[in-house]
Structures are given as C-alpha cells and as structure tokens.
C-alpha cells in the first residue's frame, strides 16, 4: 500500500509538472486515484492504513522540519517583526472566528466545525490542531485544501478590490490564509512577497495552535 | 551516501518530535507536541546548540515530499460519502467565504501595520538627525 501510494504520487507529480492546472495538484489526483482503486478492489480504509500509517508517521518530523526555513529567514523575520506578528495574528483570528461563525450560522455539525477551524494553517499542523480540538483529520485536510487552492486563486482580485499593493501585505495575507498554495502564488509577485508569505505561513501555524483552543472556548464552537 | 545523511537527519527530527510529544503529554498542554518540537529546534538552531548542518538536508527533503505525507489521511475522506451531498456544499461555501473575508482583513491590516512601522522608523531617523544637528 505504501508502494501504491508512492507510485501513484510520482506519476501524478509528473502529470502536474507537465500541465500545471490547480485541479491537477498531485494531492487531489493521487487521492482520487487511490480512492477509486480501493473502492474497486473492495479494500476498506482501515486495511489501507496498515501501510499508510507509516507514511503518516513522518508528519511529526515534517512539522519539526519547518523550523529550518524559519531559521533561514530569521533576520528577515526580525527586521519586520512588528508587521509580521501583527498581520499574522489578525489573519489567524479573523480566519478562525469567521469560519466558526459562518459554519454555526449554516448549521454545520459540531465535529465538522472543529475540523475546519484550523483551515488557514499549513496541513500537517492543521491535522494536529483539528485532532486536538476533537475534530477529524481527513475533514481538516479537506478544509485546508479548499482554503489553499481557492485562496491562491481569489487573492489577486481581493488585493485589487481592497487596494492592498504592498508586497508585505500581500505576502502575509497569502501565507497566513492560503499556506503553501498561497506561498507559491506569492512567488509570482516578487522575492519579498514570497519570503513574507513563507514566514507568515510558519508563524501562522505556530500562533494558530495557541489560538485554536482559546477561540473554540471563547465562542463555544 | 546522501540517502544515509538524509535518513540520519530525519532521525534527529524524529527525536525532537518525540521530545516535543513527551513534553506535551507530561504537562498536558493544548499545543501539539510537534509544534513544541518545532519551537525547541528553532531555539536550538538560533543558540547554535544544534548546527544547521545536522538537520538541513533531512528537513529540506521532508518539506519537499510533504504532499505525499498527507495522502493516506486525505484518502480517509472515502469514509465520509456525505461530503458529496448538501452538507459538503455548505462546508465548501463556509470555507470559501471565510477565506475571502480573512484575506481582505489581514491584507489590509498588514499593509496598515507596515506603514505604521515604516513611519516609526522614519521618525526615529528624523530624531537622530535633529539631535545630531542640535
């Protein structure tokens, strides 16, 4: 099952490199292909996870690994400390509160709300936060993916509409709302926007883990 | 040779992650163990307790295959066929609206903070200049 996952993933990454459409992102296509295979062969998810959990167990060290890019950009972070921390804090609060309130308004069930609260954090961290809050990991990824893909697509329009022209403002908004997808979008603007976005992404993940439980408690989500 | 370096460095990251989880369990913290480990590693790197060389290839490698690591978890969506119904649509709408709101707010706020920080810096330089001239 590990082999199947890796092989399908490599094939889909090749496909994506050839045709870079957002809906061909390897994570979407690989997941779809594997689900189809499992359903056709009548293999339950539990059996797939016997092998799959080995892949998942690397997520812990992968989160720790995020310290490395943050360390590389520490000077940059220190130079703009006030702006970055302020911007990311606002982003994390507005992202979590707005998704929680909207979900409550639309009558989405409790576990689902808890799963999508961390939707603006980078995936490995969102999984942990969702599980910590009592949500579901698969749903959390679902929320994160939608926020990431859609956020990266819609952001330029929002920037135009809200007159956000500074590379710093754009970078922070992209990194702390649309994480990795937003950061790759930021790379299209400029080097500064890109660095800002990747620092914001990591910082947002860290701040988000502290804020998540507080916001859930405050708003009774 | 490269594979060995990467594997060993991933083991170091594993050890950090393990320590983080142990701290998490011991103090019953709400913050996940891996985030504690991230902060711990960041501090160790800044204080030069752990040289960057010890982890950089492993960290860069893990980040490059990050997408692959999520796949077993995303496949778990197959247990929730209800996502294809109205519930799923509502969920998508919620996330979309929230993302729009939050990008607008945080982009505007960050730009505002940036201008403020810039102004403070300028003021400082002005003061320096005026004190020099005085």
Description:
Chain A has two domains: 2-57, no CATH class; 67-219, no CATH class. Helices cover 83% and strands 0% of the residues of chain A. Chain A has twelve helices and no strands. The termini of chain A are far apart. In chain B, helix 1 crosses helix 3. The model of chain B has no long low-confidence stretch (mean pLDDT 86). Classes of the chains: A mainly alpha (221), B mainly alpha (134). At the A-B interface, helix 1, helix 2, helix 3, helix 4 and helix 5 of A face helix 1, helix 2, helix 3, helix 4 and helix 5 of B.
Largest sheet of chain A: none
Number of domains of chain B: 2
Largest interface: pair, residues per side: A-B, 99 and 71 residues
How large is the share of residues in beta strands of chain A? under 5%
Transmembrane segments (chain B): 7-23, 29-47, 59-80, 86-113
Main location (chain B): membrane
Subcellular location (chain B): Cell membrane
Organism (chain B): Peribacillus loiseleuriae
Secondary structure blueprint with pairings:
The complex is a heterodimer of chains A (221) and B (134).
Chain A: H1 2-18, H2 26-40, H3 45-56, H4 59-65, H5 67-72, H6 74-79, H7 81-105, H8 110-116, H9 123-133, H10 137-162, H11 167-189, H12 191-219
Helix pairs in contact in A: 1-2, 7-8, 7-11, 7-12, 8-10, 9-10, 9-12, 10-11, 11-12
Chain B: H1 2-27, H2 33-46, H3 56-64, H4 66-75, H5 86-133
Helix pairs in contact in B: 1-2, 1-3
Short structural summary:
The complex is a heterodimer of chains A (221) and B (134). With 221 residues, chain A is an all-alpha fold. Chain A folds into 2 domains: 2-57, no CATH class; 67-219, no CATH class.
Question: What characteristics describe this protein?
Answer:
heterodimer, A: 221 residues, mainly alpha, 2 domains, B: 134 residues, 5 helices, 80% helix, flat, Membrane protein (chain B)
């Amino acid at each position: 099952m590990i082999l199947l996952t890796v092989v399908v993933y490599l094939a889909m990454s090749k496909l994506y490199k050839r045709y870079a459409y957002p809906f061909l992102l390897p994570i979407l296509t690989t997941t779809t292909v594997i689900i189809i295979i499992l359903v056709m062969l009548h293999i339950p998810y539990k059996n797939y996870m016997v092998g799959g959990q080995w892949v998942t167990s690397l997520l812990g060290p992968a989160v720790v690994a995020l310290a490395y890019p943050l360390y590389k950009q520490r000077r940059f972070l220190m130079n703009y400390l006030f702006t970055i921390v302020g911007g990311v804090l606002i982003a994390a609060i507005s992202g979590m509160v707005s998704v929680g309130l909207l979900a409550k308004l639309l009558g989405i069930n409790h576990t689902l709300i808890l799963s999508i609260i961390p939707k603006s954090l980078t995936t490995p961290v969102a999984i942990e936060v969702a599980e910590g809050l009592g949500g579901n990991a698969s749903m959390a990824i679902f929320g994160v993916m939608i926020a990431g893909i859609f956020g990266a697509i819609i952001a330029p329009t929002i920037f135009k509409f809200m007159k956000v022209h500074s590379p710093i403002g754009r970078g922070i908004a992209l990194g702390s709302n649309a994480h990795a997808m937003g950061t790759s979008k930021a790379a299209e603007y400029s080097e500064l926007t890109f660095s800002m976005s990747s620092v914001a992404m990591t910082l947002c993940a860290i701040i988000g883990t502290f804020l998540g439980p507080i916001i859930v408690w405050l708003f009774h989500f | 040779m490269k594979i060995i370096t990467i594997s060993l460095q991933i083991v170091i990251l594993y050890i950090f992650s393990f320590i983080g989880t142990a701290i998490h369990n011991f103090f019953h913290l709400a913050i996940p163990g891996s985030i504690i480990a991230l902060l711990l590693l960041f501090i160790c790197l800044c204080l030069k307790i752990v040289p960057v060389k010890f982890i950089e290839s492993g960290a860069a490698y893990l980040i490059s295959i990050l997408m692959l690591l999520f796949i077993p978890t995303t496949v778990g969506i197959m247990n929730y066929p209800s996502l294809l119904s109205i519930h799923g649509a509502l969920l998508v709408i919620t996330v979309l609206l929230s993302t729009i709101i939050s990008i607008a707010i945080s982009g505007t706020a960050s730009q505002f903070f940036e201008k403020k920080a810039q102004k403070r810096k300028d003021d400082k330089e002005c003061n320096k200049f005026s004190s020099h001239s005085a």
